[in-house]
Amino acid sequence: MSLISSLACLLPLVLSALFYNKLPDKVATHWDINGIANGYSGKIFAAFGLPLILLGIQILLCFILDNDPKKENHPAQIKIISKWILPVLSMLVQIIIISYALGLSVNVSKITLALVGLLTAVIGVYLPKCKQNYTIGIRLPWTLNSESNWDKTHKLTGRIWTAGGILLAASSLLSLSSLFFTILFIMVIVPAGYSYYLYKNPKQ
Predict the structure, then answer these.
(1) Where are the chain's structural domains?
(2) How far apart are CA 109 and CA 169, in angstroms?
(3) Is 28 left (phi over 0), alpha (psi -120 to 50) or beta?
(4) Cα(188)–Cα(195) distance, integer angstroms
(5) Using an 8 Å Cβ cutoff, are 186 and 160 in contact?
(6) What is the pLDDT of residues 59-102, one digit of tens each?
(7) What is the mean pLDDT of the segment spanning 110-118?
(8) What average pLDDT does this structure show over 139-155?
(9) Exposure class string for 152-168: b at 16+ Cβ within 10 A, else e
(10) Is 113 helix (H, G, I), strand (E, B) or coil?
(11) 10 Å Cβ neighbour count for 121?
(12) Cα(117)–Cα(115) distance, integer angstroms
């Protein structure tokens, strides 16, 4: 799976090669939360540099996942998601970059936030099945120190991420992108705070 998913990261390079001659010298590669382009890169970097960077990250990620001493605790579903998220993301990012550069109407912010929300919701469904390991999950000092803390934290986190992911997607589709960081903050701080609470109150 690692080899196939890594090779899939090369597909955006093919897409870039097909449209390379039609791209402008400066290509938008970054947008603010309202979908307005605020960062540009050279044509070569936008077409080939970004996919190659994501390929490098993908190779490193697969290496870490495959060499986790507790990799047998990785849920199969989350392992698949973890190994395929970057190849899919790389292709989507390249499609967005090229489409925008060619003048097509693309609401980058809405698409991105909706996808982030849906992905988070899916991960939330499977997160409670994740047992202690060193690469996947809420890896805090307190969860890694106690299997009970890990299990309880991930059970709560799964519910929060599923609900939060759906809210993120909905807020994007309803053009309420200003709520994104508030929802994201809650999704991060509540599980961390709950894990610490369990650490300080082990009988809970």
Answers:
(1) 1-105, 107-204
(2) 11
(3) beta
(4) 11
(5) yes
(6) 999 999 999 888 888 888 888 888 998 899 899 989 999 999 99
(7) 86
(8) 94
(9) bbbebbbebbbbbbbbb
(10) helix
(11) 18
(12) 5
How many CB atoms sit inside 10 A of residue 7's CB?
Answer: 12
Cα–Cα–Cα angle for 116, 120, 124, rounded to 5 degrees: 175
- Average the pLDDT over 157-185 and give the result: 87
The whole-number pLDDT of residue 204 equals 67
pLDDT score, position 154: 96
**Tokens linked to 194:** 């709950």
Nearest CA to 41 among 85, 93, 84, 87?
93
CB 100 within 8 A of CB 37: yes
Mean pLDDT over each residue of the chain, to the nearest integer = 89
Express the helix, strand and coil content of the chain in percent, nearest 5 each.
75, 5, 20
Alpha-carbon dihedral angle through residues 79, 85, 87, 90, given to the nearest 10 degrees: -160
Per-residue confidence at 31, pLDDT binned at 50, 70, 90?
Answer: confident
Q: Answer yes or no: is pLDDT of 131 > 70.
A: yes
36-57: buried (b, 16+ CB within 10 Å) or exposed (e) per residue? eeeeebebeebbbebbeebbee
Tell me the DSSP string of 36-81: -EEEEEEHHIIIIIHHHHHHHHHHHHHHHHHT-TTGGGS-HHHHHH
173 to each of 43, 169, 177, how far by Cα in Å?
31, 6, 9
